[in-house]
Amino acid sequence: MKIEGSSAIVTGGGSGLGEATARLLARLGAVVHVFDRNGEAAEKISSAIGGVAVTGDVASEADANKAVEIAAKAGDGLRILVNCAGVAAAGRILGPDGPLPLSEFERVVRVNLIGTFNMMRLAAERMAETAERDDKARGVIVNTASVAAFEGQVGQAAYSASKGGILSMALPAARELARFGIRVNTVAPGIFLTPLLLGLPQETQESLGASIPYPPRLGDPAEFADAVRFLIENQYVNGEVIRLDGAIRMQPK
User: Fold this and answer.
1) Where does residue 141 rank: exposed (0-12), middle (13-18), buried (19+ CB within 10 A)?
2) Distance of alpha carbon 183 from alpha carbon 186, whole angstroms
3) Sorting pLDDT into bands at 50, 70 and 90, what band is 67?
4) Is residue 26 pLDDT above 70, yes or no?
5) Confidence (pTM)
6) Separation of alpha carbons 1 and 183, rounded Å
7) 183-202 residue pLDDT tens
8) Which InterPro entries would you find in this protein's record (predicted)?
9) 40-63: b or e for each residue (b if 16 or more CB lie within 10 Å)?
10) How far is CA 191 from CA 103, 115, 194, in A?
């Protein structure tokens, strides 16, 4: 899929992995719609890259529809969706204060999994309406899972379930949307230097980085963005899940 001139939505584009992706796609010539719950962050990034800010919740049908409708009117129609929006949460199924509140499990699954599906289904509808390009392509969707989908740690039941669901959607979604010329791929990142980790002491950051086989450091969001670029541009990659983790395999704790 050619990025230049394409209309793109990056959810969670106001910070972290989403911000890095929005910046790269803009540099490559896409009309980037930064969709984030944090309106101030969305405005800041969109202003910096010459994009469009859209404030809203990915799990809200109305908010997601708004973002998709705006993006569908740019360029030659909505062609690219990158789902980076998500929440991280830690909580044991049975902790010292009793069972994990069901509302907490629902919150994580709603944002991470339902939000991803909500955006994918609505964006796919608009992509299917666009004109075919020379290679019969109409659009591409890249979702964000996590290595926790493979090796969830103690306290990550909700998070792992949500990311595992995203991982499992890749192939059936790719198969179903193939007839429209829409590809679906997934990136499963390891430990990346996002705003959450930037708030940790330098010693802790270095310790986390040292646990990664090679390179022994935290991932750079720009490396995530570059993986997304590859998945968008390489037309033969479809229904795939790429681990981006420096060969780390998470321990139980």
Assistant:
1) buried
2) 10
3) very high
4) yes
5) 0.95
6) 9
7) 999 999 999 988 867 766 78
8) NAD(P)-bd_dom_sf, Sc_DH/Rdtase_CS, SDR_fam
9) ebbbbbbeebebbbbbbbbbeeeb
10) 26, 22, 9
Q: Which two tokens stand for residue 30?
A: 């896409």
Higher pLDDT, 206 or 71: 71
What residue type is assigned to position 199 of the chain?
G
Three-state DSSP class for residue 184: strand
**Encoding tokens for residue 74?**
């740019």
- Angstrom CA distances, 231 to 48, 57, 90, 139, 208, stand at 24, 25, 30, 12, 27
103 CB contacts (<8 Å, ≥6 apart)?
none
Q: What is the pLDDT of residues 103-145, one digit of tens each?
A: 999 999 999 999 999 999 999 999 999 999 877 899 999 999 9
| Six-digit token string for 213 | 């086989």
Q: Which two tokens stand for residue 125?
A: 């509808």
Q: Which two tokens stand for residue 65?
A: 């529809």
Nearest to 3 by CA among 197, 229, 196: 229
234 pLDDT more than 70:
yes
Helix (H) or strand (E) holding 54: strand 52-55
Structure tokens that stand for 183 in this block? 């590809």
Q: Which residues are catalytic?
A: 159
